[in-house]
Design brief:
Order of helices and strands: HHEHEEEHEEHEHEEEEEHEHHHHHH
Distance between the termini: 24 Å
Strand content: 15-25%
Number of strands: 13
Largest sheet: 7 strands, mixed
Helix content: 40-55%
Shape: elongated
Radius of gyration: 32 Å
Mean pLDDT: 89
Length: 410
């Protein structure tokens, strides 16, 4: 189709055409960035931690009386938990994903306090069986041996503690020793003696998963067993058992396992529910941004429909003349669709420039990553399709006008 007559017509309606172009441009700029933020948040919400989250519950206790030596009580608690119906395994940890605490330590690969830290990593101190209980997957090496575990209370009192081993996640291994095996390598976290890498897990989540801090990608396990007084019981539920029922039974068992020792359950929850609470704001943002996108697209669609309907009414004589000269319904329909395509394309080009500008603004003020190029064609396709769908009804009404009626109406 010859677009010169269309351009000539649009020149006579500069104001209306300019307004719809600006509306499309604004929608394109906002929708491209909003889609990027939505997919970014959705990816964060659905990120795999490598843990058996649906089978995990956490229970934290506080003692109302002073306990000088909590290790025997902690050992008795772990044994008692394994007697609870529906408990597959149990361990202790100083922190866990989606929890309220975050323990991080600088990691050196050279001896000496003056050596530079290579990375700051999430620092898990755990009791035996943590890897199996959490559902983590070892991709190299082994789990800690029983003789490698150190009591947390004795470690705190030692100015030069001896912790022989460490397990790190794969991201940390790739960062410190790219292209090499991390097994047997030395790290310095505790004291002057090295901790040797004995294992690498595929995933080990940060206490704050999805954090924008690059250091949150690196995590490590230390065989430093916390007590009930400073750690949290991580309990894995047996297949088929109800986590809520097991959680209540486990809490009651722990409270009943301390005659003469007054304790209270400080916190108890399934890990899935903690994940839901952790990502509540992210889900709200996704819904808000999705609502903004839908609202803008609806307003833009109504704007296109209104403008096209107005132009059909204004061009009734032109339509009748073209039909009288032999133009088919399909040609009239294509005329309005082509006109909308030109307006949409102009708006999309301006919108892409605006989208890039908004992206730079977000990067500068909110430290967000740059808008990936792929979202620009996505936004363009959405707006092209929206324009063609919105103009279809007015264009079909124009194409359906009989020549005699159109000329008489003009």
């Amino acid at each position: 189709m010859d677009i010169l007559p269309i351009l000539s017509t649009l020149k006579r309606h500069k104001t209306a055409a300019g307004l719809i172009v600006l509306q499309i441009a604004l929608t394109c700029a906002i929708v491209c960035n909003a889609l990027f933020l939505i997919f970014q948040r959705v990816e964060r919400i659905n990120a795999d931690t490598g843990m058996a989250e649906s089978e995990l519950i956490t229970v934290s206790l506080s003692s109302m009386t002073r306990v000088e030596n909590p290790e025997p009580q902690t050992k008795s608690d772990l044994a008692a938990l394994l007697q609870v119906p529906g408990v597959a395994s149990a361990t202790l940890t100083n922190q866990y994903a989606y929890g309220r605490s975050s323990n991080n330590s600088g990691v050196r690969t050279e001896a000496g306090e003056q050596a530079r830290s290579r990375v700051v990593a999430g620092h898990y101190t755990t009791g035996p069986d943590f890897i199996r209980t959490a559902g983590l997957k070892l991709v190299a090496g082994r789990d800690f041996m029983p003789e490698e575990y150190v009591a947390g209370s004795s470690l705190d009192a030692n100015p030069d503690p001896r912790v022989p081993a460490v397990i790190i996640n794969k991201r940390m291994a790739d960062l410190l020793w790219p292209g090499e095996s991390a097994l047997g390598k030395a790290l310095y976290v505790y004291g002057q003696q090295p901790q040797r890498v004995v294992g690498v897990v595929a995933e080990l989540p940060s206490p704050n998963p999805g954090s924008e801090d690059e250091n949150s990608q690196y995590t490590m396990l230390m065989p430093v067993q916390p007590s009930f007084r400073g750690g949290t019981f991580l309990i894995r539920v047996a297949p088929g058992a109800d986590p809520e029922v097991v959680m209540k039974a486990a809490s009651a068992k722990l409270l009943g396992n301390s005659p003469g020792l007054r304790r209270v359950v400080r916190d108890q929850e399934t890990l899935l529910k903690q994940r839901q609470n952790y990502y509540r704001q992210d889900r709200s943002m996704v819904m808000l941004l999705a609502g903004v996108c839908v609202g803008l697209l609806v307003v833009t669609a109504f704007g296109i429909v209104g403008l096209a309907s107005f132009w059909v009414q204004q061009r009734t004589r032109m339509i009748g003349t073209r039909r009288a000269l032999g133009a088919t319904r399909g040609q009239i329909l294509r005329y309005f669709q082509t006109e909308n395509l030109l307006l949409s394309s102009a708006g999309i080009v301006l919108g892409m420039v605006g989208a890039y500008g908004i992206s730079l603004l977000l990067m500068r003020n909110y430290e967000l990553p740059r808008l990936p190029f792929v979202y620009l064609p996505i936004g363009a396709v959405v707006l092209w399709a929206l324009g063609q769908i919105a103009v279809l009804a007015p264009a079909r009404r124009a194409a359906a006008l009989p020549p005699v009626v159109a000329l008489r109406g003009g």
